[in-house]
Write a structure and sequence with these properties.
Length: 162
C-alpha cells in the first residue's frame, strides 16, 4: 500500500494547474482555430441566423413541412426557468436524415439541428433557452419530406409558476 505524502500531492496539484493554465492560453492564443471549427463546411449559418421560422426552414431545408403524429416532442407545459428548458424529440419514421428544433419567438428561430445517419437512433434531447412563452416545433426530415410536431411552453418570469 502506497501512502501519498503532502509533497507528492502538492506536485500533482501543481502539474494539474500548469496543464489548466496551458489549456487556457491555447484559448487566448489560437482563437482562429476555434473560428475554423465553428464555420466548418456544411454549417447552416444562414438558418441559425434567420429571424423567423419560415426563413430558418427555407435556409435549412428549402421545403414546406406537414404536421405528423409520427413525430413526438416532449417539453414541460410550464418552464419556470427559460434559460434551461428540456426538450426531447423522437420519431418512428424510417430513413430520418435530420432533426431540428425551432422556437419561433426567440430572436433566432432555429435553436438546434442534428444530422442523422442510418446508424443513428432517431431521438435527440437538449436544453434550450427561451425568451418568452411560445410553441416549440420539432422538424424531422425523413424520406425527402419534412414532418413536424409542436408543443406550447409557458415561460414564467422569476420562476414563480404563474
Amino acid at each position: 500500500m502506497r501512502v501519498s505524502s503532502p509533497a507528492s500531492m502538492e506536485a500533482t496539484r501543481r502539474t494539474t494547474l500548469r496543464l489548466l493554465a496551458a489549456l487556457g492560453l491555447y484559448g487566448v492564443i489560437a482563437p482562429s482555430a476555434r473560428a475554423a471549427v465553428v464555420n466548418a463546411p456544411g454549417w447552416p449559418e444562414a438558418a441559425f441566423k434567420a429571424a423567423n421560422q419560415e426563413a430558418a426552414l427555407k435556409a435549412l431545408y428549402g421545403k414546406t413541412l406537414e404536421m405528423s403524429d409520427k413525430v413526438s416532442i416532449e417539453t414541460p407545459d410550464i418552464a419556470e426557468n427559460g434559460a434551461v428548458v428540456p426538450v426531447s424529440v423522437s420519431t418512428t419514421l424510417p430513413g430520418v436524415t435530420s432533426i431540428s428544433i425551432l422556437v419561433p419567438e426567440n430572436p433566432f428561430a432555429l435553436a438546434a439541428s442534428y444530422t442523422m445517419t442510418d446508424a443513428s437512433l432517431a431521438q435527440v434531447s437538449c436544453r434550450l433557452k427561451m425568451a418568452k412563452t411560445t410553441k416549440v416545433i420539432a422538424v424531422v426530415e425523413a424520406g425527402g419530406k419534412l414532418y413536424a410536431a409542436a408543443n406550447d411552453v409557458k415561460v414564467t418570469l422569476g420562476g414563480c409558476g404563474g
